[in-house]
Structures are given as structure tokens and as C-alpha cells.
Design brief:
oxidoreductase activity, Sulfite Oxidase, Chain A, domain 2, 11 helices, alpha+beta, Molybdopterin-binding protein, 2 domains, 10 strands, binds protoporphyrin IX containing FE
């Protein structure tokens, strides 16, 4: 196009708006700090990108464990047993750390948002639209995530799907942004001039803010930080039988277990078992955490019957998918499907006890699922039926 003397339409200049509109922050020299400059933007951008990358990858892991596509479902690993506790703990820790980092990055670059003229060319205008999408998606993503850790949903849209798609928009926008700023990022990647006065203090304050929010919230995941856990919404050792509860038996309508409760196992050789019959089967104890999507996790010693023993008795094929149904009448997790990798794991139990005691109704009395490397919402409580699909 250039050889023919034609200009790419994206680079055609756009008309400049009248100067009379150039007021307030749009005025020349409206921002005085010398730290609104590219080297500071690159240093903070690198830190922010690190936090966002960890948050994105661990978020995808959580999404895939909860809602795997069919081709992946039978390959979900049940080990490491503590895996989900680590990845989801990191997800919430990096998401919270990204909040001060995003604030500092935006402070550094926000005078650019008032650049004049607002769009020099169509390409420049499109880049700025991309920036608007990136900033909007990042702010909303971190805001919805933070409110989710408080179990507060003041919006009409479904949290999980919105958070998932916003993550893709934000990360896509970030890739476009980094590509568009590529030459500038490369130029300022290494320090080439003596540091600007005040930059070290700014970066030090941002690092201190990130350290502070991490230390006062990470105790919900990291046991040795528990004594500093001042701001996290949950204490992993508070709740009936020393474990937190998200959905209580009262909320689920399962406070009173039917007097004729039996575990029903449907498969090639269906059968039912009373509680006494379940207790007469070989019992296993396992140490596993309840690891919640909100980032907290708590370990306990669970006792009960191995799911694979119950399935073998029903004649289930080793690769069979299992459906677990709760006594809960409604609620998004009243029915759960369990791939064979979990169902066959010797650590996966139909738990009847926790730390040597009969389960509290809030922990799923009469029986609940406990499996390794599984989000808490899939550790179905108040189990009434197992089905071989
Ligand atoms: C959540 C992630 C990010 C957000 C929301 C964000 C936001 C912004 C915004 C709003 C601007 C001003 C745009 C304009 O020029 O009109 C900007 C500029 C810039 N960003 Fe980012 N950014 C992010 C990540 C990054 C990363 C990862 C890097 C590099 C490692 C980076 C490097 C830069 C640079 C070099 C500039 C130009 C600064 C200047 O010319 O003074 N950004 N960013």
C-alpha cells in the first residue's frame, strides 16, 4: 500500500476537537508529578502482570475443576491432594495483591487518559478504546472477586460466568496493550538513566502496600500467617467442629434427616445401606482439607467408607462417571458429578465422621463426600444417593 503511495486508513489523521474544550485535566501541564512516566509504568506493569498471570492461571484451574469440558473430565487429576488448596489460595492472594498494584499503575499513567487530542488517528482511537476495555474489565474483575471472598453478591448477574469471561477480556486487553506499547516497554525495560527523585519511594510504598494486604489476608490459606490474619473475611478454624461452613443445614433445608434415611447406590447391582450397615463396612481415615473457592482452606481428619468400595459393590466399571445427589432440594450443588479419577482415589470417602465425631448437620450429616484436590462446593453434603452413569 505504501509502495503505491496509499496511506493505511487506520493512520489517517482525525480532526482535532476545538481548543475551547481543552479544560481541567485536558490542559497542557495539568499533571505535575515527574513520576507519571514510562519507566515507572514499566516497573509497576511488570509487577502487575506477574500478579495477573498467577491469578489468571489459577482461576482457569479452578474453572476447569468445577466445570470441565467433556474431553477433559476423565483426566482431571485427584493429586496432589492439597492441590486446590494451593492454587485457589494463590488465586485469592494474587488477586488481592493486584488491587494496590493496579491502583499504582493507573496513577502512574492516568494523565495519558487526558492526552490531547483524544485520538490522533483511527489506530490511536482504537488503541484507546482497547485501553478503556482493559481498565474497565480489570477493575470489575478485581471488584467482583473481592466481593465474592466476602460472599456478597450485590449484582443481578451470575458471578461465576461473569468473572470467567471478564478474565478473558482483561487478559486479552492486556496482551493487546503490551503489544501496542511494545517499543516503549522495550526502551524502558532496563534502567538507562539515573533514577528519578521519588521513584524509589513510590515503588517502596507500593511494595509495602502489597506486602501489608497480603500478610493481613493470606492467613486464611497459609497457616503460619494465621496470627496476622486481621482482614480476611474467614477464619479457617471458626465454625461447628472447628471448620467454617458456607451453606448451613438450615439454609439447605436439611436440618432434619428423614428417619428412614438410607444411602442408595444405583449401578449394575443396585443396593441401599442404613447408617448401621455403612458403619459395619471397612472404615478409612484421611487427612484432607476443605478448600473453598473463596480462598480459605481448613484441614481435618475425615472418617468413612471409600467411595470405590461402594462402587465396586454396585458393579461399577472402573472408568464410570458417578452422580452424587444430596438431600438438599434446591441449590446449584444439590447434584454433583464425579469423574472416575476422584471416585477411584483411595482418599475419596463417603465421610461419616470428622475428627472422630459424627458430622455436624452443617458439615453434611448423615454423610458427605470428601475428595482430594477438589473445590469445596463439590464436596457434596447430606448425600442420599450415588449413581453409576
Ligand atoms: C492490568 C494491566 C494494565 C492496565 C490496566 C494498564 C493501563 C494503562 C493505561 C490506562 C495506560 C495509559 C494509556 C495511554 O497511553 O493512553 C497505560 C500506559 C502504559 N502501560 Fe499499562 N496497563 C497495564 C499493564 C501494563 C504492563 C504489564 C506493562 C508493561 C510491563 C505496561 C506498560 C505501559 C507503558 C509503558 C505505558 C505508557 C506509559 C507512558 O507513556 O508514560 N502496562 N497502561
Amino acid at each position: 500500500m505504501r509502495r503505491l503511495g496509499l496511506r493505511n486508513p487506520l493512520d489517517a489523521p482525525l480532526p482535532t476537537p476545538p481548543d475551547a474544550l481543552r479544560k481541567g485535566p485536558l490542559r497542557e501541564g495539568a499533571f505535575r508529578s515527574r513520576l507519571h512516566e514510562p519507566r515507572t509504568a514499566v516497573v509497576l506493569g511488570r509487577w502487575l502482570a506477574g500478579a495477573i498471570l498467577v491469578c489468571f492461571v489459577t482461576g482457569l484451574i479452578s474453572h476447569l475443576l468445577q466445570q470441565p469440558p467433556t474431553w477433559l473430565r476423565d483426566h482431571l487429576p485427584s493429586r496432589p491432594a492439597q492441590g486446590y488448596r494451593v492454587t485457589q489460595g494463590l488465586h485469592v492472594i494474587s488477586g488481592i495483591a493486584a488491587i494496590p498494584l493496579l491502583g499504582a499503575k493507573l496513577w502512574t499513567v492516568y494523565p495519558k487518559l487526558f492526552a490531547w487530542p483524544p485520538a490522533r488517528t483511527l489506530r490511536h482511537g482504537l488503541e484507546r478504546l482497547g485501553i478503556a476495555l482493559l481498565v474497565g474489565a480489570m477493575l470489575l474483575e478485581l471488584f467482583t472477586g473481592l466481593l465474592n471472598t466476602l460472599q456478597w453478591y450485590p449484582w443481578p448477574f451470575p458471578f461465576r460466568q461473569t468473572h470467567f469471561w471478564l478474565a478473558w477480556i482483561a487478559v486479552g486487553g492486556l496482551l493487546v496493550h503490551v503489544a501496542a506499547k511494545g517499543p516503549e516497554i522495550a526502551e524502558h525495560w532496563r534502567r538507562s538513566k539515573p533514577p528519578l527523585p521519588g521513584r524509589r519511594a513510590l515503588l517502596g510504598s507500593v511494595a509495602a502496600a502489597v506486602g501489608a494486604v497480603t500478610v493481613v489476608t493470606a492467613g486464611q490459606t497459609v497457616p503460619w500467617l494465621r496470627s496476622l490474619d486481621l482482614l480476611s473475611p474467614r477464619r479457617p478454624d471458626v465454625g461447628p467442629q472447628g471448620l467454617p461452613v458456607n451453606r448451613t443445614a438450615a439454609q439447605a433445608g436439611t436440618l432434619r434427616t428423614p428417619a428412614d434415611w438410607r444411602l442408595r447406590v444405583d449401578g449394575p447391582r443396585p443396593y441401599t445401606l442404613t447408617m448401621d450397615e455403612l458403619l459395619a463396612l471397612p472404615q478409612t481415615d484421611v487427612d484432607l482439607p476443605i478448600a473453598c473457592v473463596e480462598g480459605w482452606s481448613a484441614s481435618a481428619r475425615w472418617g468413612g467408607v471409600r467411595i470405590r468400595d461402594l462402587l465396586d459393590r454396585a458393579g461399577a466399571a472402573p472408568g464410570a462417571l458417578i452422580r452424587v445427589t444430596s438431600l438438599e432440594q434446591s441449590g446449584p450443588y444439590a447434584v454433583m458429578t464425579m469423574p472416575h479419577t476422584y471416585a477411584r482415589d483411595p482418599l475419596t470417602l463417603l465421610a461419616l465422621r470428622v475428627d472422630g465425631h459424627v458430622l455436624d448437620p452443617d458439615h453434611g450429616y448423615p454423610a458427605r463426600i470428601i475428595a482430594p484436590n477438589r473445590p469445596g462446593v463439590l464436596q457434596t453434603k447430606w448425600v442420599s444417593r450415588l449413581e453409576v452413569l
